[in-house]
Amino acid sequence: MASEKGIAEAFYHFADKNAVIKRDTLIKGKENIREFYSRENFNNAVLNWAPDFVEVSECGTLGYTYGKFTSKTQSDSGSVNEFSGIFHTVWKKQEDGSWKYVWD
């Protein structure tokens, strides 16, 4: 979804209504997460990630993933900035059976 509709829509779509992401600061709630990723510097960003580990609680309502990611952004002058690191995401099963993240 991030590659098709953009990072803002992907992070919004998969966010629990009370989701929190930790970037330079804590960003709380779906709408604030969408607003954060709607900033101009994310418009042409490319985000790639893949989990190295996935685990789900025995009751099947919480899970977490972690793995490596890379992010590339291009400035107005054309220079490309690349950042890589490790992500950790906590997921919560929703009433409709879908999974939404509560922490990233």
Brief write-up:
This protein has 104 residues and is α+β, with helices and mostly antiparallel strands. It contains three helices and six strands, in the order ααββαββββ. Helix 2 packs antiparallel against helix 3.
Distance between the termini: 17 Å
Helix-strand pattern, N to C?
A: HHEEHEEEE
What characteristic shape results from the CA principal axes?
A: globular
**Relative strand content:** over 45%
| CATH fold-type name | Nuclear Transport Factor 2, Chain: A
Structural description of this entry:
The protein has helices at 2-5, 7-13, 30-37; strands at 15-22, 26-28, 46-56, 62-74, 80-93, 99-103. It has 104 residues and is α+β, with helices and mostly antiparallel strands. The protein has one domain: Nuclear Transport Factor 2, Chain: A (Roll), CATH 3.10.450.50. It has a six-stranded mixed beta sheet, with helices on one face. A hairpin with a 5-residue loop joins strand 3 (46-56) and strand 4 (62-74). The radius of gyration is 14 Å and the shape is globular.
Features:
globular, 104 residues, 6 strands, single chain, alpha+beta, 52% strand, Nuclear Transport Factor 2, Chain: A, 18% helix
Secondary structure: elements and pairs:
Elements (H helix, E strand, L loop, with lengths): L1 H4 L1 H7 L1 E8 L3 E3 L1 H8 L8 E11 L5 E13 L5 E14 L5 E5 L1
Helix pairs in contact: 2-3
